[in-house]
Amino acid sequence: MISRRTLLGGSLAAAAGAGVLSGCSTVTRSTDIAALNKPVTLPTYRRFAGPKPDLPRSHPLMPDCFYRFPAQPARVTDGAPGDGTDLSGTAPTSNPIPPTADRNPYWQELNRRLGSPLDLTITAATDYPNKFATAVAGDTLGDLFNVDGTFAYLPQFLEARAQDLTEHLSGDAILEYPFLANLAPDSWRGCVFSGGIRAVPIQRGVMSSNLLLARQDLLDQLGVELGSPGVDELIKVAKAVTDEKKNRWAFALPPSAALSAMLGLPNVWEVRDGRLVHGRELDEYKQMISITRQMQKDGLIHPDGVSKNNQKVWFSQGSAVMTQDTYSSIQSFYRRSVSKNFAIALPVVRDHAGKVGRFLLGAPNNSIAAIKPSSPERTKMLLRVLNWMAAPFGTEEYLFRKFGLPGRHYTLNGTDPKLTEAGGSEVCLGEFPIQYLADGGYPVYFPGHPQGVDVAYNHLKAILPTAILQPTYGLYSPTQSIKGKVFDTRFDALTKDIQLGRADLSAWDKANADWRKSGGDAIRHEYEQAMSIHGRK
């Protein structure tokens, strides 16, 4: 799965600044906070009455949890959504690019089921920003295109290049598209710009949230109990499991998500004493950096854990006992594992008072997807196509979309589909890139590993009552749009320098002061204005 981390930020921001968007006559670089953040009636949420989850939904944010795929998935659509005309689109993939439609039986069957042939330009995620910028400049994005929600001048770009979907999706209008209506309201907040619904969400919900993962099999082997640790307990366990001579370290990378929960840090921003404050401005954030610096100095983090990103391999192979990733990553770890006893634990971390540390939710959406401006009739047809792509877990449509054709692309292990070699190639490891044009809600389901479902469910049940979403989610700050990526890059670099001992912790205060002067205070003010417009405190 592609991380929500900026797919398009640098290239699109540069492209916008260089005038790539100048071909859009309606693009204006407005800084009118009220206009850019004008509210709209969100789509009505109507939960799809599909198969009953195997575990009860104990919280509104709890994803559906299934041990196995339903034995008799029902077909929930009637006929093809397309009208026979050609469709085109643009989407990224984090997997090897699949064979083209003329050599891909899955794609051929997809076109048949859509009722319109789909010419989809698929690009490796690492190359997508530049490819997208080129497509913007050449006006070749197609009928349906994935965008990331963080590049500069996004509201203006969508006003110019995307269909306003408000009349089709606002309020009860969305009920014409029941699988889009099945997507959570928070996801739609990320699709509203300048008073209009200008995209559909690629929803991931709580599954995109970062948390601490541990190798339970290695802990058992070493006779170490992790339990529900606070800071001191986590460090104690880390020292107990680290053995450099055996090529084993406690952490694959600094455990910032766990420490954030332990130290009570906000989810990026937080209102304190009537003023919006960024987490990086707080003493607790400096404390977190100081702790990870000491962890690095004590040899508890993999030697390359700060500077390189190979944590999936280290964790899967046992070079690291703990790592930081998302709920949705769990299946990939099972797939990568080299030990027959491989088992994952998700510790519920504690704050300084011994209570469950508040959980910082990831963004509800991986990204968003938009529709090229079209006639009302074609727009409705394209929405029917996206609705089909969003058919939820447990349906026959979902089974085909994710696993392809029985026999060729998957076999059954009980009722669980298991991809064949052809399925891995032609269905793109179950992640054919139409999932970045529309997708259903992300369930807790790890084929062949029902024990992982219990682990995830129990963790979610414990932490969701404490969970907080970014207070600025779904709001737009022009300064953040233009400068935010640069600021994040600078702070990330300084964090690594401090952790590696190349910079002193006191440098953090100067960096914050520089940030405030060069745009941080402007971002704060713009978000405060936007929050006031939306009645958020």
Descriptive tags:
alpha+beta; 15 strands; 38% helix; 537 residues; 12% strand; 20 helices; globular
Secondary structure layout plus pairing:
Layout: H1 9-18, H2 33-36, E1 87-93, H3 105-114, E2 118-124, H4 128-138, E3 144-147, H5 154-161, H6 166-169, H7 178-181, H8 185-189, E4 192-193, E5 196-197, E6 200-203, E7 210-215, H9 216-222, H10 231-241, E8 249-251, H11 256-263, E9 269-272, E10 275-278, H12 283-297, H13 311-317, E11 320-326, H14 330-336, E12 344-345, E13 365-371, H15 376-389, H16 396-403, E14 410-413, E15 416-419, H17 421-426, H18 450-463, H19 478-499, H20 507-533
Parallel strand pairs: 1-2, 1-3, 8-11
Antiparallel strand pairs: 3-13, 4-5, 6-13, 7-11, 7-12, 9-10, 14-15
Helix pairs in contact: 1-4, 11-12, 19-20
How does the overall form come out from the CA principal axes?
Answer: globular
Largest sheet: 5 strands, mixed
Strand percent estimate:
5-15%
Strand count: 15
What is the rounded Rg? 23 Å
N-end to C-end Cα span: 34 Å
Number of helices: 20
Helix content: 25-40%
Spans with pLDDT under 50 lasting ≥5 residues?
4-20, 22-28
Given the helix and strand composition, which structural class is it? alpha+beta
Give average pLDDT, whole number: 93
Q: Write out the strand line-up for the largest beta sheet, numbering strands in chain order.
A: 2-1-3-13-6
